[in-house]
Amino acid sequence: MTSPDRGRHAQETEDVEAAVPPQTKRINFGPEEHYERSKRATGSRRRSASRDSISSVHSRTRSVSGIPIEFRTLSFNIAESQAIEEDTEDLKHLTTKKENTKKTQEEAEQKDYFENLDFHILPGDAICERLDVSPGQGLSTAQAVARLTQNGKNTFPARRENYTKRILNYVFGGFCSVLWIGVIVFFICWRPLGDPNPAAYNLGLAILIMIVIFLQASFSAFQDWSTAKTMKSILNLLPTETLAVRDGQTVKVSSLDLVVGDIVKISVGNKVPADMRLLNTSGDVRFDRSMLTGESDEVEGAIDMTETNFLETRNVALMGTMVTNGSTTGVVILTGGNTVMGRIASATNAVKDEPTLIQREIYRFVRIIVCLTVILASAIILTWVGWLRVKHPTYMNLISMLNNAMGCVVAFIPEGVPVGVALTMMIVARRMKSSDILPKGLSTVETLGCVNVLCSDKTGTLTENKMVVTTVGFLDKRMGVAEALSSSSEISRPLEELFRASILCNDAAFDPLTIGLPVMARDTQGNATDGATLKFGTAALEGLDRKGANGDTLPRAFQIPFNSKSKWMLTLHKIGSNTSKPHFLMLVKGAPDVLLPNCTTYWSYSSNSIKALDHPAIAQFQELQEDLSRSGQRVILLCQRDITPQNGLGSNAFADEIRDTQITDLTIIGVLGITDPPRKETAETVAACRRAGIRFFMVTGDFGLTASAIAREVGIFTNPGDPDTSYNIMERRNDTDEALGNRTFPSAPTDKSLLLEGPAISGLTDDDWDSVCAYEEIVFARTSPEQKLRIVKEFKARDNIVAVTGDGVNDAPALRAADVGIAVVTGSDVALEAADLVLLAKFDSIIDAIRLGRLVFQNLQKIISYLLPAGSWSEIWPVLLNVYLGVPLPLSTFLMIIICVFTDLFLSLALIMEREEFDLLSLPPRNAKKDHLINFKIYAQSYLFIGLMETVCAHGMFFLYMYRHAGIPASSLFLAFESYSEGFYGYSAAELLQFNTVGQSVYFVTLVILQWGNILSIRNKRLSILQADPVRKQRRNPWLLAGAAMSLSIAVFVTEQQGIQTIFGTASVPLEFWFLPLPLALGILVMDEMRKLGVRGWPTGVLARIAW
């Protein structure tokens, strides 16, 4: 079977499986496949589900054809189980595997949950009777309190954290697992091996390592706690209040305190606080369910059941949806986790966590270091067992051997790295917050720097999500809105009629809180399209100084609200004096395709008069409509007619007459082209992403023409010709098929730009996706949420690091599946939980986040490169010389820990504050599979270059001290073994111990000072310190001086404090050895400057190829 055949066969199988539920009368809750990854949910979810107002509804509207996987699966299978009885026997073999899967009782209950609900089927009175509530009186206070106590708050279920597992991971994860072995060994060396005279030194080391472990655990816990606290501050915004009937009175009640049975009143601008059964409506109530379903079309409310499917019927208002028009009263039937949104939230959270890219890099580094540590420690133990214990029995006893083995562990493990990584993440996360991006998990910060594909929603992300009128059109004149407003002073009759109709035939209203602002800056309540036309008409008529045209002089006498079936709205306005048969101005606004057949005349802009709508005029109108649609504008037609109805106003016959006989012979006033304009920063953001090597794609539910127009405007499409389509993909698939040899396609392929619409996505094979993923510029239009999820998975399967932006419940699967999910702060609770990053303000702040993500990786490399030479390499060699060459131990285990966790760590914090060495956006994204945090080049730089110089210099200072102050040459110390004891060079054992103790402190001080030269060199990978010194403003870093002062202070304290000298065996360092290392530190800096000079001078040479 060929690959395309396999793809089609797999698709057909999936379609059959989706069409037939595993068991009759059963439903599948949630997606049938697990999401690829999940992010850690932070904090306790106690956010009200009704905190938002109408001002934020359109910032979350997603024009997506289709509904999210969870909602779709539920809805579809409910309908199927209600319709299908016994006709699935022939297809049982397709579902055997699913039927045999083990299901818990809880999962089975979830499957039956929505199917068994009958709140939408029963009459409203029967519902109230069942819930023991009077529609007029509502619940009593006592009833509400009792039900709240029994059922809990009206909030989404919180994800339960396994705190025991998390604490154990803090304490025993990473390097800590090996360090605990050291703790146990040092305790054993103290007692019982140290009995009868246990050494306080071993006890002190055990306690010190425990402090190091708990210090690392505390930093890890603190970073998680601070992130959770910040995220909780977003999720726990103050809940809004809702109007409920209690004790016969309409009172304001916190949405958190609503209970089943509450009678709730909601109107335009309110968010539905719980799942409600509608009892009565204003007749024109509409709901925006896009947050839940992904469908942009508004849903009209109803009192009676319209669908047997609970999720589709219109007499139920679902929690989280918005009232965009009218008002209604309903009874609460489901709250909190029992609501539709609550159930979806539970399913979205029921996924496993997977490590992020930076976590994988840290784990890789830990594995490498731990393996090397185990090898070295094992080598020391085996060396003692097989050689030292036999050949030099008095040189090293069991306790000394264990001390050396654990000293090897402590030496080779850079204990400061986990703390340095945590602090780096925290600092950069704070910088991100100042750039209006909140990382929910600090480890996801760096992942954003690896992103090479960014899939962005259109509405509210790339665009302002504020519908505005951009074009005014008549049959014989087309103009921009600015020209139309400036022309208003010339009193053109067609324009004046258009302005007036825009205001009068309108269900939107200005927000009273913003009424004092300029017209175009005001907020509106109601439908977004109505709001755009209201602003347009009001601004124009105010320019004409005719504020009375807003409806005061022509009050509305009758209306037929807009609905999705008729696709128009109608208003009547009484004109003329009162007579037995009143005269009305009828205004109609709606879709051109629906209203045009009912039009017979039109206003001519050029002649300022009404003309007959003949065939040339109709063709002219259709051309205007097509041009506006092609440019991505929504076209609204406004018509008028003067009528004198035969029936009296207010009667049923009057309404029937208007609807049935009067919507004819209409006069076209004009058309309005309405768009959701791109944000000002969008084009710049797209260009910056492209410069950074990130392919920027649009994924939207809007139509292809509209999406393409926006894509060209913001720079997603840069090719001047038409983009490739699914036809070109099909052509590439069948380019070897002779049957299609003479077939022609709409246009020659560009191999750069691609417009792919939802219906074509379902039929793509793996080979097709290979072709799709190779395009540089892609717009996915008319996509459903599950198609968006598939897009993410297909790109990830081809080794791309994918970021996805979203804001609705329907976006949650794709947000979780992406490497980095990015939600808008005004988005749904579920989207915020699923995302890794939250945009707090403008979309262009994501560029700063990408830059900071790359800076994190670069600074982490610098920190590790700084810590390894002294904290690992220069510490392991003293142990090796002691074991294998018999040299008195040049550096004690205690001083090794002080270097790793204190002196080096404080100085490494200065590297966290380093700015970027060059424009990081000019580099391509990091290849996560090849460009590791720690690679051979960094090991070579840290161990074989800087580390080697530091090791030689530190040992040189140790041997120099022994020669100057003890008179013992280095040659005598090598292979000394047990001879370094009583009588060696005429010294007593106590004197030799004192010399060795001071020598160890000299070695320690030397390393501390040598690291000053290391940090000055390591802060620049390529630039010379003369080009990027820490003093001048461009790369100024005052933390370097502060870190050096802190490390010096710690070194002085550790070597001079008498208590530490007594317990841990340190000693005062002669004054000269505080100054001798300074020129050596300068020498390290000079050597690295010479290396950089060679790299810059010969960028293709061997030195450049191995440079880190």
Please explain how this structure is put together.
This protein is 48% helix and 13% strand. With 1108 residues, the chain is α+β, with helices and mostly antiparallel strands. The chain folds into four domains: 118-145 and 239-346, Calcium-transporting ATPase, cytoplasmic transduction domain A (Distorted Sandwich), CATH 2.70.150; 357-431 and 851-922 and 932-1106, Calcium-transporting ATPase, transmembrane domain, CATH 1.20.1110.10; 443-463 and 679-734 and 749-840, HAD superfamily/HAD-like (Rossmann fold, 3-Layer(aba) Sandwich); 468-675, Calcium-transporting ATPase, cytoplasmic domain N. The strands form five sheets. Strands 12, 13, 16, 17, 18, 19, 20, 21 and 22 form a nine-stranded mixed sheet that branches. A hairpin with a 4-residue loop joins β19 and β20 (609-612). α19 packs across α20 (528-543), α36 runs antiparallel to α37 (1039-1056) and α36 (989-1018) runs parallel beside α40 (1077-1097). The longest helix has 40 residues, at 845-884. The radius of gyration is 37 Å and the shape is elongated. Residues 1-70, 80-108, 547-551 and 736-747 have low confidence and may be disordered. Residues 118-191 form the Cation-transporting P-type ATPase N-terminal domain.
Write the topology of this structure.
Elements: H1 3-19, H2 54-57, H3 69-83, H4 96-99, H5 105-113, H6 124-130, H7 141-151, H8 163-172, H9 176-190, H10 200-235, E1 241-246, E2 249-254, E3 263-267, E4 275-281, E5 286-288, H11 290-293, E6 299-300, E7 316-317, E8 322-325, E9 327-334, H12 340-349, H13 357-391, H14 398-412, H15 416-434, E10 437-439, H16 444-450, E11 453-456, H17 458-462, E12 468-474, E13 477-480, H18 481-487, H19 493-504, E14 509-510, E15 524-525, H20 528-543, E16 556-560, E17 568-575, E18 583-590, H21 592-595, E19 599-604, E20 609-612, H22 615-630, E21 634-643, H23 652-661, E22 666-675, H24 682-691, E23 695-699, H25 704-714, H26 726-733, E24 753-757, H27 758-761, H28 766-772, E25 777-781, H29 785-797, E26 802-806, H30 812-817, E27 820-824, H31 829-834, E28 837-839, H32 845-884, H33 893-912, H34 936-966, H35 970-973, H36 989-1018, H37 1039-1056, H38 1058-1064, H39 1072-1075, H40 1077-1097, H41 1102-1105
Parallel strand pairs: 11-23, 11-26, 19-22, 23-25, 24-25, 26-27, 27-28
Antiparallel strand pairs: 1-2, 1-3, 3-9, 4-7, 4-9, 5-6, 5-8, 10-28, 12-13, 12-22, 14-15, 16-17, 17-18, 18-21, 19-20, 21-22
